[in-house]
Structure to design on (399 residues):
């Protein structure tokens, strides 16, 4: 991959054809102020020291690399490893960028941090970070997701954030984004919108990617130290795409490392109940940026579905779109049943209950491991734990 392709985004916020700032001019000024503050503040020694100390002492980084021996034996073929982001404080990778965003908001003198959440992991992580730095937090969440992810809702309330139920449209993640962004527009000078993935107008795809890149940096060093080589395959689930970009970024120049992003096929790619944006979407604009998205003939986002609340988004990060086009990353889709099967197998073979989002990636790892020789390795980003999903899965499977 050329150095030019790695210098992303460009000064206008584009990754190839995707990204940018598809927003009104006054809001472009606000976004550029955030970009300037980010570029300035995050390079200071004080910011970096505070963030790195929090990663170590508060989050518990570095998260370990774990060899899934029993799962590998059961599946056969390539050895399967997990990057254990589920062991982070708050239970997922989301805390990585939420701490960075909360600190940035504090350094910029903002009075309130706003965000959307789907599965609730971003909401919990941001509420946690805001409690830590002492700044007000408001989370918008679809009513369907509130009912489905009740444990995370309870945590957000305990942490002191204001939870805003969203009853419009599909009552899920896309509508939560709409609602949170509308609230942000009421006072963008004093509010900070902490986007939960590598999506939205520039500079948010860059900001979230950069804060999440610690996942791949750690994984690269850890795998080399453990195996004396890099993984043959990296796999991560993709909704908006933050955990995947976090893992992939450190390996983009390693041409021998194959990378696979796994989207939700839901109830089947031949139905309209999926969220396979990169697999079946077309280029368009959503939430202030250009990307592949699931849309109608007039360019309006269509309802999407996934058993995993954190993956049911009709768009996807612009860098993922570019990486697909230049064929650096391959994107596959896994349906609900394969996801549930992986969820249960990992739980009962490894004693690790994965998030349903992460189970999509594990399911594809199990599929391709069987087709690979046993001297090959697969590293899966286990992006979150499944505490939030346990009751839902138990009811779904009548456990």
């Amino acid at each position: 991959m050329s150095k030019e392709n790695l210098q992303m985004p460009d000064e206008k916020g584009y990754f190839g054809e995707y990204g940018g700032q598809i927003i009104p001019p006054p809001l472009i000024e606000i976004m550029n102020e955030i970009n300037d503050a980010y570029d300035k503040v995050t390079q200071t020694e004080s910011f970096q020291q505070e963030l790195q100390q929090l990663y170590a002492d508060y989050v518990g980084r570095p998260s370990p690399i774990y060899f899934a021996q029993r799962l590998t034996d059961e599946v056969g073929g390539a050895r399967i490893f997990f990057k254990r982001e589920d062991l982070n404080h708050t239970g997922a990778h989301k805390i990585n960028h939420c701490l960075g965003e909360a600190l940035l908001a504090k350094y910029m003198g903002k009075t309130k941090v706003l965000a959307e959440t789907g599965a609730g992991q971003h909401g919990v992580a941001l509420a946690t970070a805001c409690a830590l730095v002492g700044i007000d937090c408001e989370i918008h969440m679809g009513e369907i997701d509130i009912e489905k992810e009740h444990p995370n809702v309870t945590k957000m309330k305990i942490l002191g954030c204001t939870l805003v139920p969203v009853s419009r449209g599909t009552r899920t993640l896309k509508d939560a984004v709409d609602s949170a962004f509308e609230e942000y527009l009421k006072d963008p000078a004093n509010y900070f919108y902490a986007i939960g993935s590598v999506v939205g107008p520039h500079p948010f795809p860059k900001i979230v990617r950069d804060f999440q890149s610690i996942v791949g940096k750690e994984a690269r060093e850890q795998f080399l130290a453990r195996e004396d080589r890099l993984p043959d395959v990296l796999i991560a689930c993709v909704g908006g795409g933050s955990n995947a970009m976090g893992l992939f970024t450190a390996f983009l120049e390693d041409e021998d490392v194959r990378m696979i992003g796994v989207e939700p096929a839901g109830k089947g790619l031949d139905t309209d109940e999926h969220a396979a944006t990169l697999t079946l979407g077309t280029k368009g604009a959503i939430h202030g940026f250009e990307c592949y998205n699931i849309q109608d003939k007039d360019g309006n986002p269509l309802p999407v579905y996934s058993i995993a609340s954190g993956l049911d988004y009709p768009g996807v990060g612009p860098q993922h779109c570019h990486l697909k086009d230049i064929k650096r990353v391959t994107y596959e889709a896994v349906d609900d049943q394969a996801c549930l099967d992986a969820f249960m197998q990992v739980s009962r073979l490894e004693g690790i209950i994965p998030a349903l989002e992460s189970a999509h990636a594990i399911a594809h790892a199990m599929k391709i491991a069987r087709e690979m020789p046993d001297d090959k390795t697969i590293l899966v980003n286990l992006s979150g734990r499944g505490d939030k999903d346990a009751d839902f899965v138990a009811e779904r499977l009548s456990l």
Remarks:
- DSSP finds 17 helices and 14 strands in the chain.
